[in-house]
Amino acid sequence: MAVWIEVLMKSKYVILSLYIFFWVKALILNSSSVSYTMPDIFQKSDMLKGARHTIKDYCRLIWEDLQLQEINIYANYSLDQVEQENPQVQPGGVWAPEKCVSFQHVAIIIPYRDRLFHLIHLLRRLHPLLRRQHIEYQVFVLEQAGGTPFNRGMLMNIGVKESAKLGKFDCFIFHDVDLLPEHDRNIYMCDNNLRHLASAIDEMRYHVMFENYAGGVVALTESNFKKINGYPNIYWGWGNEDDDFSARAKITELRLTRPPEYIGRYKMVKHMKAERSSH
């Protein structure tokens, strides 16, 4: 009997040791594929390889003008008010700096249905932020019709395909309609990786849910979007498409980058949670 007890005790320690080993291994593997980078990477010379203009032609970010903003998620605004506050924005949600060349031509892809209050808040926040960052951009709102469950991934893919009919975009920002960026230094451009802009959401106590989370607001170049074959089309209902998207990036060895949490801050505009996808 004493022999069996000793064997069981040894087995217990072996199992515990294996558990710790695999936990540490998973932590190291995840951390090696995720990195936090400062927004000034977008003005470094290696980001301009193959650029069509000289460095002096490009817009320079004025960091003093890019500050943390106070966001009121309960205020009531109208689309007319947003339009009046942003007379520089052209029909179709288009704007470009006049005195310099934007580092990238950016498409903002917003999947949407029955969230007008949220959309107005987002547009009111995005237009001045993008102008302060001197980014040439166009906003695309992809609205799903009918009463079928929401398919966020399919709307993202449609947004990329339809935007190509209107111009050549260097960078795609996939943006949930209920997330409002708090810090102007959270630069809305793509790096050479999968850029997760929403690194700190108030609903999540300003932390990411898990290390390889890539939901909410992400930035990806056209070539990298094609490399991972875009978003999945199979998920009807809330959730899962983000996890699938993140897995695709990892399989193709695409690194996940984020701004520091004090910069990648977002306020979530409150709403009823949709039913999660059954897939």
Query: What number is the mean pLDDT?
Result: 86
**Helical content band:** 25-40%
- The strand order across the widest sheet is 1-10-7-9-5-3-4-2
Please compute the radius of gyration using only Cα atoms: 21 Å
Low-confidence stretches: 18-31
Strand content is 15-25%
Distance between the termini: 49 Å
Quick synopsis:
The chain is of the alpha/beta class and 279 residues long.
Structural features:
alpha/beta, eight-stranded mixed β-sheet, three-stranded mixed β-sheet, globular
Q: What topology emerges from the helices and strands here?
A:
Blueprint: H1 2-32, E1 34-36, H2 79-85, E2 94-95, E3 105-112, H3 116-132, E4 136-143, H4 152-163, E5 171-175, E6 179-181, E7 194-196, E8 200-201, E9 217-221, H5 222-227, H6 241-251, E10 256-258, E11 265-268
Parallel strand pairs: 1-10, 3-4, 3-5, 7-10, 8-11
Antiparallel strand pairs: 2-4, 5-9, 6-11, 7-9
What does this structure look like?
30% of the residues lie in helices and 16% in strands. The protein is α/β, with parallel strands linked by helices. The strands form two sheets. The protein has an eight-stranded mixed sheet, sandwiched between helices. Strands 6-11-8 form a three-stranded mixed sheet. The longest helix has 31 residues, at 2-32. The N and C termini lie far apart (49 Å). Mean pLDDT is 86; it is low at 18-31.
